[in-house]
Structure formats: C-alpha cells, structure tokens
Design goal:
The protein is of the alpha/beta class. About 35% of the residues lie in helices and about 25% in strands.
Length: about 475
Amino acid sequence: MKSGFEESWRRRFIERGRLFDDDAGIAGWTSTGLGARLRNFQRVWPGDAAGAVWLDAGCGAGSYTRYLAESGVTPVGLDYSLPSVRKAQARSEAGIAWMVGDVTRLPVRPGAFDGAMCLGVLQALDGPERAVAELMGAVREGGQVWVDVLNRRCLHTLIRRALARLSGRPLALRYHSAGQIADLMRRHGARDVQVYWVPILPAGLGRLQAWVEGNGVRRVLGWLGPLGSLLSHAVLVSARKGTEQETRRYAAGRDMSRMQRIRESFASTLRSLGWVDGLTYLLAQGLDRISRGRIRIVKYDLVVQPVRGGIGVPEHRGTDLEIRELRPGDELLERMGHPPETIAARFRQGGRCLAAVRRGELAGFLWWVEGPYEEDEVRCLFVPRPAGAAVWDFDVYVAPRHRSGPVFARLWDAASRDLSARGFRQTCSRISAFKPGSLSAHRRLGARVVGKRLFVCVGRLELMFGTRRPLFHASLRSRPTIEVGP
C-alpha cells in the first residue's frame, strides 16, 4: 500500500511524462541539475564488460539508459510512468529494452542483472529501504549498484529543513545522508562502498557549474568529507554486491561488541597474512602510531615474473580503456598523489610509466626502469638480474573502484608486449608482504617469490635483514645494493 506522499509523486511523474518533452522536464529537474548529475556519473562510473546487462530503475526519459547503451553495455530502462517510458523509447535506438515497473517491487528474477542504477528516485519515496533491497537482489554477486539521494547534510538543505520546522510545513522531498545509504547498502550485501559528492548550483548560477565540477574542487571535496557533505546538494553512492560469505561476515560483525571486533580483526589479520607476517604487520602499525611515523617496519617479498609478449586479455575486456605512456609534464602524473620531486627522480633514473585512462580519469598505472632502481620508500638500490634481460617494475596501482575490472590485466598486457618486443624476458619487483592480494594477482601472471627483505627505520637509522646476500645492513645514509633475480 503506497503512502499519500509516494502516490502524490507517482501522479506528478506520470503527469510530467504527458506534459513535457525534454529530458529534464520529464525527470523533474532543471536542465542544469540533470546535466550536472549525468556528467558526474559519466566521470566516476568505471564501465562494465561489453554486453553486460544493466537495469536503469526510474529511467524517466532515458538519459542514463542511452548513455549505458553508448558505453557498450545492454541496458533495460524501467519506470512507473508509462508516458515517460513511451517518450524514452521514441527518442532512443531500437535495441534498448523498456519496462513499466516500480523500483520497490521490481518485476525481475533475483540476480538477473550485471549492474543496476537508480538515480533521481529515492527522494520521491517514503524511505530508501525497499528500493535498495530490490536493487541489491536484482544484481548478481560481484555486480555494481549505483544510487543517488538528496543530501540531508548540505548547508542549503539544513536551512530548508530548519525553516520547514519553524513554519510547520513538511518538506516536499525526502533527504538522506551518505552514511545512511552506505550502511543500508552494506546491510543488503554491498561491499566496496564508495561515496561521491555532487555539488549543484542553482539555475541562476549555472555559468559557474563547470567550475565547481572541475578537478580542483572535486579533489578538495574528496579530501575534506565534511566540507563535501556541506556543499553538495546530492550524493552518489556505488557498491559491489558481495558474496553470501561476505554478507554473513558483515552481519556477524555488526552483532559483535567492540572487544569482539578487535579480536576478530586481529584473527583476520593473522589468517590473511600468516602468523609471522601478521604479527609483524600489527607491530608495524602499533609502532607507527605510537611514534607518529618516526619508527617504521617495511617488509617486502622479492618476486620475478616472466615476460611473455602479452598475457592474453580477451579483446572485449576494457575496450573503453586507453593505455598510454606518461612522459614528464603530463598532467596525469599530478593525480598519482606523489610529490613532484619523487616523480622527477623516477624519470631521472630512466623510469617509464604506463597509465590506464578511462574517460579522462586515471584508473591505474605501473612503472619500470631498465636498470638499477633507487627505492623511494626505504634506502636501498635494487638491481634486476640478469642484466639486459630483466627490468625492475614498481608502484603498480589500480584505483579502488576499478580493482574488479580489467585495468590490472590490460596494463600488464601492454607492458609485457612492449618489453618482449625489445628482448626482455622477465621483470623483478618488490611487493609489500602486508598485501597478499597484490602478490596473488602477480602470481596469476606467473610471478614467484625469490627472497624477502625486512627494513626497520628509526629516524635516519635503517636496519635491513634479508634471506639472500646481503643478509644484514645498518646505515644512517648509505644504500645497500640488493640484486634480484632467479
């Protein structure tokens, strides 16, 4: 049984579908608001494999549905307004499927979609619970779910809510916080939840909208969460649907006391890293906090990985990714989060950098040098062996929301082809012993561990312990030379 609030909005959207012909009018937004929301989604959506089936729940005039189709996935547009669906179908290509239905009672089987989105809808519902539950249920394990809400912690909204309480008049829309939506999605099986602030200016200030959508403003809002919340009219939340095991583990964690959660975290660390590396990691974390960064423990697995002239990435995977080499001065280098002097030092050593770029966004990167490399995390000189047949690779990074996609594989495929064409047979590298996932990813490409190094840094004093020569080194300034090879 629909409430009066939801029925009122249903009638409005059906009426807007009859009266308006433009996308913004049908959706109930200003053209500035709809354009800003669409551009924001285009910037942050990582895409999906060609042919993946996606649900656009609450599609309105089909603005997002058409964008999904243009991006290579197979969309299904759904809305409870039949006039809106008819107009969406009339202005779209023939291959898109359309349905009339309600996001709170989706007419689809569980797990039918590879991804789902519901944008511009939750503010017209009494609460987000039913819609989020339906969306999570409609997506397969590992699939993406994207929703947006009007931000209840935005300064403009806070003022409107205060005035509404003083006047005794209810607000015409529902507002939610990012934390509320993120927690709700987790309770229904979501993992890897990400929050994106969406600052939207009033229509009268539309000429400044491009400025607030710029990289500088978005970075500041991302770094300063409370500021982003205060200045953003809307918030976009994405997640991956977890496995049943992940969902049960999350539910169990919510029922634990604080001490139980600490014990479970401790046990989880030991399970994932093993007793030796797990205890070393916990000691490193504790000393780092107590000393405020003056005491560090760094442990590496040294690995060798064959170069095979490509790793066989299927052609349909990551077709929207651009893999290109970055050279000094490229503005993408600034997005890596490294100090300029670190980047400059890498290029002085002959470093090369491949980047994966998706619609202008830096999705991942990797570096290598074709000779000795001065490590910039600790003081040492790594030398890949045999000379002339091996390179040193380092700083392999994939942005969190791209880690379930093809970015890692496409980067290594491109690097492997380049190196193989120039006669190199293997890469040597160091991987943090505290990141088993990274080591597993490299092992799938044929990497094997050939040694270990433990560094204890106290101020300028550095102590190094190894399983291969040199077995020990202590210094205040000098760098030990570490040869890495089969």
